[in-house]
């Protein structure tokens, strides 16, 4: 399999043929971020309820409930103080979204670069990310690539697809609210680099919608 789009005619009558709309990734990203926030809050509430039930059981000298009883206690006793603070919420959501993206990037490169020779230079791998991987996932190439030749690379996309349909809300909060939608792509980039044997940290920010800037810092191998 390659990055090249299949040429017509398509054999749509083939019962084994599978087709996927390019809008699926857009829909996934739209739902992924709010879903991750919900999961983070549900896990926190469940952990807090379980801790409260265990504490009450210890105070009364009764062994903590297990199995279905523990689940019932957790659902009926959700303390008001179980809400995550802003930093904890951000870290939990970032960890989950970035981890999901990492696995996606790892699988993409393993599948689509298997017929290519291994890159000898880190810059060649970064160019592969900017051109081939970006085209595959976001349907365009990166607009600008800069490097200090010391392991730091800055990728600029002036019309980043996941942010292209976001509206600028009143009060200037649009850029702030768009930040979580960059965490999954950060994981995709980090996973893709890991599949090519390059350890790196990836950060992204948006100063003005729909643009996005990704900073990659590669980690020298010890």
Low-confidence residue ranges = 1-9, 63-82
Count of separate DSSP helical elements:
6
> Strand fraction band?
5-15%
> Structural class per helix/strand content?
alpha+beta
**How much is the radius of gyration in Å?**
22 Å
Architecture overview:
By secondary structure, the protein is α+β, with helices and mostly antiparallel strands. It has six helices and four strands; from the N terminus they run ααααββααββ. The protein has a four-stranded antiparallel beta sheet, covered by helices on one side. Strand 3 and strand 4 form a beta hairpin. Helix 1 crosses helix 2. It is globular, with a radius of gyration of 22 Å. The N terminus is likely disordered.
What keywords describe this structure?
disordered N terminus; alpha+beta; 4 strands; 222 residues; globular; 49% helix; 4-stranded antiparallel sheet
Q: What topology does this entry show?
A:
Layout: H1 23-60, H2 68-76, H3 86-112, H4 122-138, E1 144-147, E2 152-157, H5 174-178, H6 183-195, E3 200-205, E4 212-218
Antiparallel strand pairs: 1-2, 2-4, 3-4
Please sum up the structure shown.
With 222 residues, this protein is of the alpha+beta class. Helix content is 49%, strand content 10%.
